[in-house]
Amino acid sequence: DLLTFFEGNEREQLNELFRPVYLQLVDTFLHKSLLPPDEALSAEERELFRCYRQDICDSYMYTYFILKCGMLEQLERHLHNSVARIQRDPEDWRPLEALLHAYASVAETVADSDTYYVPRFIQSIPQIPFGENIHLITVT
């Protein structure tokens, strides 16, 4: 929140200073938002995890306002890696689901402001092997 108090050159310098931290934060959020196996959580734990993921979505929004295209570039790299992983092993869908969840959390904001990464993401959708995976279908 402190970054919003600065303007102009000062804000740009601070954004560049904190850019690596925020990029690492995106990676951490992707890891922390991986869905556990269905049987791993009780109903109460699933609800707590759903709330936790919603908090991560809110954090993605704030992170996007700092990184802008840098976040989209990072997500695109993860998209290519996640699609390659699930193509090798269809059971390895959790990283792709977490990534699609991240895209969904910033979709409205990004759609209005980006003309480079959004079309690239849309063009990559046919490459995603959804199959009958309800988790991937639902999050998209």
Describe it for me?
Keywords: Nucleus, Transport. Its main location: nucleus. Pfam families: Importin_rep. This is Importin-13-like. There is one protein chain. With 140 residues, the protein is mainly alpha-helical. The chain has one domain (2-139). Helix content is 74%, strand content 0%. It is built from six helices and no strands. The chain starts with 7 loop residues before the first helix and ends with a helix.
End-to-end gap: 30 Å
Gross morphology is globular
Overall domain count: 1
Instruction: Summarize model confidence as the mean pLDDT.
Output: 93
Profile the largest sheet. none
Key words describing this protein structure:
mainly alpha; 140 residues; Importin_beta-like_NTR; nucleus; transport; globular; 0% strand; 74% helix
SSE map:
Elements lengths: L7 H25 L10 H25 L1 H20 L5 H20 L3 H8 L9 H6 L1
Helix pairs in contact: 1-2, 1-3, 2-4, 3-4
Gist of the model:
This protein has 140 residues and is mostly helical.
